[in-house]
Amino acid sequence: MTPLYFEDLAPGQVHRSGELAVTAEAIKRFAAEYDPQPFHLDEARAAASFFGGLAASGWHTAALTMRLLVESGLPLAGGIIGAGMDELRWPRPLRPGDTIRLESEVLELRPSRSRPMQGLAKVRTTTLNQDGAPVQVLVANLVVMRREPGGA
Amino acid sequence: MTPLYFEDLAPGQVHRSGELAVTAEAIKRFAAEYDPQPFHLDEARAAASFFGGLAASGWHTAALTMRLLVESGLPLAGGIIGAGMDELRWPRPLRPGDTIRLESEVLELRPSRSRPMQGLAKVRTTTLNQDGAPVQVLVANLVVMRREPGGA
Lengths: 152, 152
Hints:
homodimer; 4 helices; elongated; HotDog_dom_sf (chains A, B); Bifunctional protein PaaZ (chains A, B); MaoC-like_dom (chains A, B); MCH/BMMD (chains A, B)
């Protein structure tokens, strides 16, 4: 992938990622280490829970989204560096057997006031399942390197 | 820990967690699977990067925060179920050798309009390092079970 600099981005651009399949084993393994709650760990207890069946931890969905962003979703020259999030929500659970992919839309761009080689990009990354339904919406403010120095 | 129901929460309450130590090995292992960027994977390349040294992925900080919330930080009766986040930022990196702990302040409570056995709690969870400096600030809207049915 050609690395993208601040100058290559424009509001309205949409960048798409490759796909990633999610297994029950992966959901349980993440949960055992980072979010050990019954609805992420055990099918029977999950069926009786709020989620009505095994569901990935939202933080697992976020972590897998990051992997897709890094590997194929948004090839920023300096890497994917989040300065902060404006929004993070999980409209529906990520389930075993789902295959996810990303659509990242550039919403806003602004040069850095203090760092001439950097800019900030506000990007909405939607994580979609195989039915095209969103399992996560993330609006992130990313630090993006410039090709040439710029000013505010 | 005594499980907390919606009726047990009040704005201004602060709940504290136990501690968790973070190693370079753990930082690299998370990054290899979920955020494979040089500044999370390799000391030398991290030293030359934006971060000036090995730093945990922000999503690793979030995942470890979740583990502390589940294990000791906020013993909600139905578990920790996030309906969405109003804020998520990482004021400084989480570094190898850091020990983290949480302070979770209840900001707002509101009964569910449609589900008499549930309420919503807005909680600000600050993840502090061993110097008491924040490495993450998360404001989450949590689904909380009621002991007795209530109405909006």
